[in-house]
Amino acid sequence: MAFRDIRIIGDPVLRTPCDPITDRDATVKALVEDLLETVDDEGRAGLAANQIGVSLRAFSWNIDGEIGYVLNPVLVEVSDEEFQDGDEGCLSVPGLWYPTERAWYARAEGIDLDGRPVVVEGEELMARCIQHECDHLDGRLYLDRLSRTHRVQAMKALRAQGL
């Protein structure tokens, strides 16, 4: 296992949709171990594989003391009447937090390393994490979901950081 460096906005891997995992081989097992070790750090709620430079559909989470992972996740359900609009940040967009509307509840389905079905679901922070990480796997950043005003502020802040 290895604690991996986080790719930062501007790296093309973050804007490229991730490929499905077709073989659950030693490489994928090592990826899962790296995802789990890298997400297990203070202040980290979730981590998509492309954030550590691997363009495969997998993410890990670290919510309320529960750490886990899912391969080939697909967002299958979100609440369409209840929303949350709290501040959201991203390891790949360091230091920036902006109000980001997300569904209150989310559910993703995928598999584990043995090919068994995995369901990841939750409300509030877990729902935000699921949606955020699935966005990453589709080549999107939370910045894409910001209101026009907040997006302009974020772009100015990124330029000021040299990103």
From TrEMBL:
Gene3D superfamilies: Peptide deformylase
Cofactor(s) the protein needs: Fe(2+)
Matching InterPro entries: Peptide_deformylase, Peptide_deformylase_sf
Keywords annotated in UniProt: Hydrolase, Iron, Metal-binding, Protein biosynthesis
Catalytic site positions: E133
EC number: 3.5.1.88
Reactions it catalyzes: N-terminal N-formyl-L-methionyl-[peptide] + H2O = N-terminal L-methionyl-[peptide] + formate
Source species, domain of life: Bacteria
UniProt xrefs under CDD domains: Pep_deformylase
Pfam families registered for this protein in UniProt: Pep_deformylase
Positions annotated to bind Fe cation: C90, H132, H136
Cofactor note: Binds 1 Fe(2+) ion.
GO biological process: translation
Molecular function per GO: metal ion binding; peptide deformylase activity
Cited function: Removes the formyl group from the N-terminal Met of newly synthesized proteins. Requires at least a dipeptide for an efficient rate of reaction. N-terminal L-methionine is a prerequisite for activity but the enzyme has broad specificity at other positions.
Family in the record: Belongs to the polypeptide deformylase family.
Protein name: Peptide deformylase
Species assigned in the record: Actinomyces howellii
Gene expressing this chain: def
